[in-house]
Amino acid sequence: MPELPEVETIARALRLGGRGAPALVGRRIQSADLLWARTLAEPSPAEFSARIAGQTIRDIGRRGKFLLFQLEPDTLLIHLRMSGDLLVEPQATPPAKHDRLILNLAGELRLAFNDARKFGRAWLAADPQRILSGLGPEPLEADFTAEELFRRLQCTRRQLKPLLLDQTFIAGMGNIYTDEALHMAGLHPLQAADSLNATQAARLWESIRAVLLDGIQRQGASIDWVYRGGDFQNYFRVYQRTGLPCPVCGTPVERTVVGQRGTHFCPLCQPLMEGE
Predict the structure, then answer these.
(1) Catalytic residue among 2, 5, 162, 189
(2) pLDDT of residue 83
(3) Which of 17, 28, 97, 116 is the most exposed place for a label (fewest CB within 10 A)?
């Protein structure tokens, strides 16, 4: 699943131009072709097509793993989920096998939402906060401090790995960057959140920010058919490196399953603290 750095990379490319395509800000949406109805979470297909036609893309951003297209007056929200991608192509391009939603744009361009596994969703909303209100803080924003993370950790005994994956706790983290951040912080994925002291929480905060910023700088990780373009996968510390030496101590990286998610860690650098 594309995580915060991959979604941020896509948003920047669509806003500013990149990934071999021009910028979309300022372009008018001429029409929409919904090729798989369940891709659209709301409104109805007929209302969606009628409302979005004629609106202009004023800005493109991100909240957690959601892509936000600021239109006039609505907001188009897209969540890529497991296998979604957004492709800017000439308008005459025939629909691809897994295209689910196509926006026909001024300038003979189209924006195609391609989603092989059909988990991705789109919303057209007058009030995007109604959909985004349940998300936790943005980990790269100034108001998400080490002190705030420590306070939130002290409120729960949940294990760190599933807690960091919970989008209501922190928005944008996924399997890759959670494993990487926990390794950098020297914390076991099964450690209880409220067992961390202020120093450990500060180290986790620094690690979360470091791996996300590094991922953005490297334009994300290209690890399967979903997202291609970045090279952060060449700098993984533990993720998908089972049996390979830890870059810090040389101990073979281990894999376990936490909350039904494959989890990678170094048993020496990330010991489970006694009593947990």
Answers:
(1) 2
(2) 87
(3) 97
Q: C-alpha 120: how far from its chain's center?
A: 12
Summarize pLDDT for 91-118 with one digit per residue, the tens.
Answer: 999 999 999 999 999 999 999 999 999 9
Catalytic residue among 22, 158, 261, 276: 261
Between CA 254 and CA 265 the distance in angstroms is 6
Task: Identify the pLDDT of residue 164.
Answer: 98
CA–CA distance, 20 with 234 (Å, rounded to integer): 22
User: Does position 77 have pLDDT exceeding 80, yes or no?
Assistant: yes
**Cα–Cα dist 28/105, whole Å:** 6
How many Å apart are CA 155 and CA 188, to the nearest integer? 19
Choose the catalytic residue: 12, 15, 65, 241.
Answer: 65
Q: Give CA–CA dist 77/123, Å, rounded.
A: 5
Mark whether 218 is an active-site residue: no
Query: Which structure tokens are listed for 199?
Result: 């120093």
Mean pLDDT of 45-49: 97
Distance (Å, rounded) from C-alpha 5 to C-alpha 171? 12
Catalytic residue check, 97: no
CATH of region 146-265: 1.10.8.50
Verify whether residue 209 is a known catalytic residue.
Answer: no
Note whether 251 and 238 are within 8 A (CB): no
Q: Which helix (H) or strand (E) holds 234?
A: none
Instruction: Please write the tens of the pLDDT for every residue from 134-156.
Output: 999 999 999 999 999 999 999 99
> Domain ranges in the chain?
4-132, 146-265
CATH architecture of the domain with residue range 4-132: Alpha-Beta Barrel (3.20)
Half-sphere exposure of 84 (CA within 13 A, CB side): 23
